[in-house]
Design goal:
The structure is a single chain. The chain has two domains: 255 residues, D-Maltodextrin-Binding Protein, domain 2, CATH 3.40.190; 157 residues, Periplasmic binding protein-like II (D-Maltodextrin-Binding Protein, domain 2). 40% of the residues lie in helices and 16% in strands. The chain has a five-stranded mixed beta sheet with strand order 2-1-3-13-4, sandwiched between helices. A three-stranded antiparallel beta sheet has the order 11-6-12, with helices on both faces. A two-stranded antiparallel ribbon has the order 5-16.
Length: 455
């Protein structure tokens, strides 16, 4: 990895020689960073890529920031590190800042100045389970399974397990993870109940009334836990679905792109008081990550990104495994490789913009499964979203990049017209449309899940 203090000395020398030129190129209107030595956390997943690329390509240094990237053991350790100040910011599950703000789990004020990516997850089942599912999956003209594969094909398997007195268990990475909500969405769309939480009653396992028992497993441990038979399937980000194929222990049956097309995935999170104390540092962090995201979505750069991510300090998986998804294809059954060009999106489709409607979707899922115990008015959802998602900071960074010539106005939403809400989205596996302005109407349309009742 780069040597931050050696890089700092080199940069300071350049600054002494040509300060005026550098200031213009970097957007002097932002102001120099109040804090320049930073520690940022991440989990070993391919969607930590914007942090790795911002580091390796010198985008952090271009902003006068000297960053150390630190892999974390799990999502709780990562969140605790940001809260207690050990970390200045981190790649986060989109649900983490929202849950912390409303007090589900650890309570803290975490903000999100940009999203890191779209899509990137899949649901994998053990070979035994796939063999039982496959007769219930229609075949396409070429004889291969027809995608997307709904959880309707899993339902008879779960019923078989029940008849034998065996619980059916699946793993996800954290109670407020995208993976938890995507897995639950897929199961419920297929008529399987994933269980309720009841935090006001001390029930935080999320298994009340469950047909399928979901539990937490850290991402890198998913394949080994599946192989050991502790779980029968899981939802996780890459490369840990493709690793199951590579090892011959499981079959990814559906990607999250097929559950919800271009769904928001990870975010960059930091404490509210950090952003208030170090506003220039915060905006400069966003600038560096925006440049990295755009670099990543140039197809010519993906192979280089794969080589970087394969290093042990980042993801630490085989290049072949990481490349399976990062280069526009995805392998389901061994040898069944299909094009999925948008499996990993880092910048296209305004992937980095912190939309209020994205935040509200996560809040609806927290409510749907009982993590928010009581019904809330629509205005409450928007109020929470505005506390956490900060398009104002995003806009400052984007405008500085445009002014400095590093990026163009065409790279970003039309800020003059931007409301913070995506248009209503209907490309979900169950076909139920979602409008972030009407969260309660959305909840009432979902067949399984809480609406106006309290458990």
């Amino acid at each position: 990895m780069r040597k931050p203090f050696a890089a700092r000395a080199k940069w300071l020398g350049l600054f002494a020689l040509c300060a005026a030129t550098l200031a213009a190129a970097r957007g002097a209107e932002v102001g120099w960073p109040e804090k320049d030595e930073l520690r940022l956390g991440f989990i070993k997943l391919t969607d930590m890529a914007p942090l790795a690329i911002a580091y390796e390509k010198g985008f952090f240094e271009d902003e006068g920031l000297y960053v150390t990237l630190e892999a974390q053991a799990n999502w709780k350790v990562l969140l605790d590190g940001v809260i207690d100040g050990r970390l200045d910011g981190a790649q986060m599950l989109a649900g983490q800042p929202l849950a912390a703000t409303i007090g589900f789990g650890t309570e803290a004020e975490i903000i999100v100045p940009l999203s890191l990516d779209l899509n990137g997850n899949a649901i994998t089942v053990a070979n035994e389970v796939w063999a039982m599912m496959k007769p219930h999956v229609p075949a396409g003209p070429d004889g291969r399974p027809q995608h997307p594969i709904g959880a309707q094909a899993l339902k008879p398997v779960v019923e078989h397990f029940k008849a034998e007195g065996r619980p059916f268990r699946m793993g996800m990475v954290f109670p407020v993870s995208t993976h938890n909500y995507e897995l639950r969405y897929w199961l419920a769309a297929g008529g399987l109940h994933p269980g309720y939480y009841a935090p006001h009653k001390g029930e935080v396992s999320g298994t009340i009334g469950a047909d399928v028992l979901l539990s937490v497993t850290p991402p890198p441990q998913m394949p080994a836990t599946l192989e050991a038979g502790t779980i029968h399937g899981y939802c996780v980000g890459e490369p840990w679905n493709q690793q199951a194929v590579f090892k011959g222990i499981g079959v990814p049956v559906i990607t999250d792109y097929e559950i919800w097309k271009n769904n928001p995935e990870k975010v960059f999170g930091l404490r509210r008081d950090f952003a208030e104390r170090y506003p220039n540092t915060t905006v400069r962090l966003v600038k560096a990550l925006l440049r990295a995201a755009k670099w990543l979505d140039d197809p010519a750069n993906r192979r280089e990104a794969v080589r970087i991510l394969a290093r042990p300090e980042y993801v630490g998986a085989d290049e072949e495994v990481i490349a399976n998804s990062m280069t526009g294809s995805f392998e389901y059954e061994k040898g069944d490789v299909r094009p999925v060009p948008d499996f990993n999106v880092f910048f296209r489709y305004h992937a980095t913009y912190p939309y209020y409607s994205d935040a509200i979707w996560y809040l609806t899922q927290m409510r749907r499964w009982g993590q928010i115990p009581e019904p809330k008015p629509d205005a409450w959802y928007l109020e929470v979203a505005r506390k956490v998602y900060r398009p104002d900071l995003y806009r400052r960074a984007a405008e500085a990049l445009i002014a400095g010539g590093a990026m163009s106005a065409d790279d970003f939403p039309d800020f003059a017209r931007e409301t913070g809400f995506r248009p209503p989205q209907a490309e979900f596996i169950d076909g139920i449309p979602y409008d972030g302005r009407r969260p309660n109407d959305y909840l009432r349309r979902l067949a399984i899940g809480l609406k106006d009742e309290v458990l």
